[in-house]
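sry for the spam today, last one i promise. struct tokens for design, 221 residues
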């Protein structure tokens, strides 16, 4: 019994040491981010995991009081090492709590988050399906609508984007939030105004992550 307790104590101490403490810059709303007006209260953030693309959070407390930092928990974004990470509670269809994902592209027109479905799996949820049974888009294109996109190396990605000029707001009571739109077949058609070449690529499953990045980079010039 003593041996078991000893090993459990070692395991517990290892779990504690694996967690790290950070002091991030939080932006409570999208407007706060645009105006560079972060939360003034200092927040101590305990991390579960951090990668180059996302941050998983264990707890957030105000340094001065030790209370739960509700504004940080429900903030729209945080800043770390000059990178901006969106709260994944604001991600359409694949929302995830206590998770912030990095914007890979920030320009004058679009902001984009790219999440590798395998490598970044912990950053998002698969619980919601934007398509139901497929709908009219699938029938029109003779393809199954999707929201998973391959890159030239065959890796699958979820893509979130924000149209800075026409941001999608949260529902009533959450208007401070701007939603990260999940790139799906319908959104591609809208963005390209039903361009015939793009439709052909979609039919042949040849529309790649790189095609969207090229579209965004042109729009951001």
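last one done:
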């Amino acid at each position: 019994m003593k041996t078991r307790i000893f090993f459990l104590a070692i395991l517990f101490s290892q779990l504690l040491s694996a967690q790290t403490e950070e002091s991030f810059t939080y932006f409570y709303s999208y407007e706060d981010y645009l105006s560079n007006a972060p939360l003034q209260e200092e927040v101590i953030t305990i991390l579960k995991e951090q990668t180059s693309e996302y941050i998983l959070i264990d707890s957030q407390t105000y340094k001065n009081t030790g209370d739960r930092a509700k504004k940080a928990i429900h903030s729209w974004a945080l800043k770390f090492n000059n990178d901006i990470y969106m709260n994944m509670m604001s991600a359409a269809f694949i929302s995830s709590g206590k998770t912030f994902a990095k914007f890979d592209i920030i320009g004058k027109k679009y902001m984009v988050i790219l999440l590798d479905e395998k490598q970044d799996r912990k950053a998002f949820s698969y619980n919601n399906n934007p398509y139901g049974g497929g709908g009219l888009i699938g029938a029109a294109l003779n393809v199954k609508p999707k929201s998973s996109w391959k890159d030239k190396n065959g890796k699958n990605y979820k893509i979130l984007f924000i149209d800075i000029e026409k941001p999608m707001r949260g529902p009533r009571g959450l208007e401070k939030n701007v939603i990260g739109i999940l790139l799906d077949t319908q959104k591609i058609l809208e963005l390209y105004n039903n361009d015939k070449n793009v439709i052909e690529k979609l039919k042949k499953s040849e529309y790649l992550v790189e095609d969207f990045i090229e579209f965004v980079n042109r729009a951001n010039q």
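The longest strand covers residues 54-62. ok im logging off now
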